[in-house]
Amino acid sequence: MDITAQTFGPTLPMLLDELSTCCFVALDFEFSGIAKRGDGGTSRPSTLQERYEEVKTSADHFQILQVGLTICHEDLKEGIYTLRPYNLHLSPIIDDRLGVERHWSFQSSAVAFLLTHRFSMDSLFRQGVSYLSRDEEIKAVFRVLEKFKRPEATTTIGVDEAETESLAFLQEVRRLVDEWLALGTARGSYLNIPPASRPGAVESPGIMSVELNRFQKRLIYQLVEVEYPFLKAIGRSAGFLQIVDRDEELEKTALAQKLESTQKRVWEQTGFRWVAEALAGGDLTNLPQDYFNNRWAGLHKPRQQLNSDQIKRRLRATRPVVVGHNLFTDLIYFCRCFFGPLPDRVEEFQSMIHEMFPVLMDTKYMATHDCGSINPTSSLQDLHNKLAFVPYPKTKLASQHTKYKAHGISHEAGYDSLLTAEVFIKLSAHLRDRGADEKPPPSGKNTKATGSAPKPGQPASAESHTQLVEHTTNTYMKLRTDEAEASKRAAHTVIAGPPGASQMVLRPSDSIVIQDRVNRGQLIPRLDAKFWSTYGNKLRVFGPSASDSRVCRSCQETIVRRQYASAATTQGTPETTTAPPSSAFPVVKPTHTIKAGVLLSRQPQITRDLTDFEKAYFFYQRRLNERLTLPFTKYFYFKRGTPADEDWKRKIRERQTAARDIGKYNAYSKDAWNDELLVGAVESDPAHQVEMLVQDAEATVNATSQDTSKKEEVPRPFPRWTEADEKGDDKSLNRALQRTLYLLVQSKEGYWKLPSSAVEPEETMKQAAQRTLAQAAGVNMNTWFVGYHPVGHYVYNFRKPSSELQGEKTFFMKARIFTGQADLAGNADNLTDFKWLAKDEIAKYVRPQYYASIKNMLAER
């Protein structure tokens, strides 16, 4: 549903009512600009504080242009989640009567991106919903107070003695004021300056102009303040001033009236901030009652009259779970846009966010948590596409919210918020058992502990799970609250439980039916599940990194691609419960040890040997070229009768052609057509051709040499068959120059394999492979790892699997060697031998099952 400036009024009560009864709300924004990472010429990763400052600075300059809001209600009886997506533009314009200016800018790349996705800039100004931040509200009220505030008493008027015209003007004003005061009780209630021709007004001799300019008005204000403090000068729109008696009570009354009118105008201008206040637990006391009356009856269909007091009480007592994709950036922009300037320290921002939003869920963190360097999918659209086939939990769009039912609108805030809501529902049910055996991230230089873990067995409610707090500066930010704050929030809930559980359907339940549906993946986990302690109140700041790299979920490309049977057992399912297919929601637990393998290769050094057909074909091409080219013009190169000319004649008689590598052949004779060789002829052999070229060169060198006693030899090419080939030295890299060689190592048990070892905590797959190669074959090799993704894998299942592990999975990273040699001396893996082998040679050493898994990674030559 689109909300415009015209429909916002009648829609607001419905929005607030839905927010007060929903189980969660999904947010998404489109900005006029975003923060861009600036590394300053260094590869050092940014800290959490540095990234916060980048986004905070960006939020100071840029603005939220479009807001997407999807409100979700849970039907426990039917097991269906009803979604109501809203989409609206935010108007950047403020009522100029408030006297507050709003400064913001556009980023060219951001605008280009929005326009590419058919964003309407015209709708921003014509249909945008107005809003006023808390900071702007304070400025508007402060401006009124400043206007009515009496300035500090001054003792002088800022006019120099040389300014004769100004002095004369002041003298005339004094005369007028003194004459008016001399009338005593007979004087009128005011004095106009300059005096106009009005009945009862004091006439001026004509020294003043008909209309005062700004400088003259300022002089009159200063004169009255300095010399007549019991009087007051009031400006009038007709270009003159009125002098009246100062009345303190009247001034207080005028100030009160002005403040009241300004405050009412502020509350009317607040607009969408009322929704932001409802989400953040703000004060809705001053929400105008006009929104709940029939003021907009002509603009909207008749609707049920909503009780404003009841809605406000529910919103004060409960706050829904707030869901977003990349919430870290969204919350910074949200708070800056609707509330005001942000604190300088990220720790202060954490506390502020905790106060506003007790329960936050970042779907980007959920999708990338604990996934290591496998680079899991984190794009919102990709996640939604891969979760679309999952049948449970069931979702539907409300009857009046079918804009995106037929097709979505990519990068429209309302549509993206709908995707976020659907992804959260499917992900939360899929990951419901994650975190039961969760270990806290290891402490280190990139981890800062700021809280304590919950006690064993304690329910991971929205309050208690946030006590497990440490934030990793390289990946994500956790939010924190203390015991006193938890007690304070709990006192505001109507029913005991997590914050917001009094009205939220996610509250813990003792119902066997509900718990069974949660176990089957039909419902979102309740707030007492350990799922919330693992994924709740953690915001993804950077992408997955080494500090978050326990490669879990079987190195998933996506979290729902596999179709396993659920391990959740059924406990007395009632007859009315309909069980979903057992393959819908896997319980993903590590079943194999993850290992990193190294496919280290030496590339071919020379081209391969030609086949007999290729030799004959290329030889035929050279003879054919000889027939098609012009004859060799010998007299252009050789002078008649010279030794060079005689040498040329001798050679042409022997081979009948100028070419030196095509044998005896005359391309211009009547037998030139006979240019093919007989079977077994040596002329097509490259070795014979090389020998003929060398002999020709030696004959030329020796014929022209002055020292005929010594025969000179021309250097011959290196042989294609090396000394290592002759000796069968399979440890040498100077063998099988036409083939790709791979490093194989022998374990202490006698098995041959590619180097591999288990991935350790804090490692990416590439880092583990680099460490494995150094530990196995030493560091005296110049190697290069080709990429960050494995090129293949091998699965080994134990013959007698344990209760926890069934085997090992080895993922091979491709690498190449340029110089150096393997050295097993002092290796950490107890390896006994190594070989450099080609693909067909590897098959003779490794086990058949192992070779079947790796053969497709190996080059044929």
Automatic annotation (TrEMBL):
InterPro entries: CAF1_poly(A)_ribonucleases, NUDIX_hydrolase-like_dom_sf, Ribosomal_mL46_N, Ribosomal_mL46_NUDIX, RNase_CAF1, RNaseH-like_sf, RNaseH_sf. It is found in: Mitochondrion. Its main location: mitochondrion. It comes from the Eukaryota. One of its GO terms (biological process) is siRNA 3'-end processing. GO terms for molecular function: 3'-5'-RNA exonuclease activity; RNA binding. This is Large ribosomal subunit protein mL46. Residues 593-725 form the Large ribosomal subunit protein mL46 N-terminal domain. Belongs to the CAF1 family. Belongs to the mitochondrion-specific ribosomal protein mL46 family. Keywords: Mitochondrion, Ribonucleoprotein, Ribosomal protein, Transit peptide. Residues 433-466, 566-585, 701-729 are annotated as: Disordered. One of its GO terms (cellular component) is mitochondrial inner membrane.
